[in-house]
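Q: What does the predicted 3D structure of MOB3C kinase look like?
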Amino acid sequence: TMALCLKQVFNKDKTFRPRKKFEPGTQRFELYKKAQASLKSGLDLKAVVQLPPGESINDWIAVHVVDFFNRINLIYGTMSEYCTEKSCPIMSGGLKYEYRWQDDSKYKKPTKLSAPQYMCMLMDWIEMLINNEDVFPTRIGVPFPKQFQQVCTKILTRLFRVFVHVYIHHFDSIINMGAEAHVNTCYKHFYYFIREFSLVDHRELEPLVRMPQGWGD
């Protein structure tokens, strides 16, 4: 019943839906399948994130960035009815952390936004990047840009803030929806991945140093 309940929770038709798929027959699709198979086999998550022998690190990072975007997108989608302009007028992680939005177009300077506004800007911004062939090339033989890992660091740093906000401000809702195990597994997988490749500055990780009770190792 737990699996069924989760299926219902994560299959709801929400605003935030996965927006990027890997094309079958491509190298990245094979890597994605390999990563998913390891996850399903219940292997230790620390082992699952390690770069498979002979694979390109940028391909491996690309696969995970897209997959985490899709999964975190869905997690936030299930929370979005509890995360409103009224409940979350500031994009924050408790009283100590506030996140402002900045991009190269509409918001040139760091700008205070409500959590739902921030999430909307974030998901649109990531979607634009991962669908941009100059940043995330999908054609065989087309090299990754020099700045690729820096771009991924920025994406993953901002996705980490979604976990910060959801855990600190909406943890009760996660529990009430029966989605705690799913969210925790996704967070652990994400956390081990960014640590394995040093993709997010350790200072960004501070808000979740003391994880909610029952999170385990």
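A (community wiki): The structure tokens above were generated from the sequence. Strands lie at 92-93, 97-98. The longest strand covers residues 92-93.
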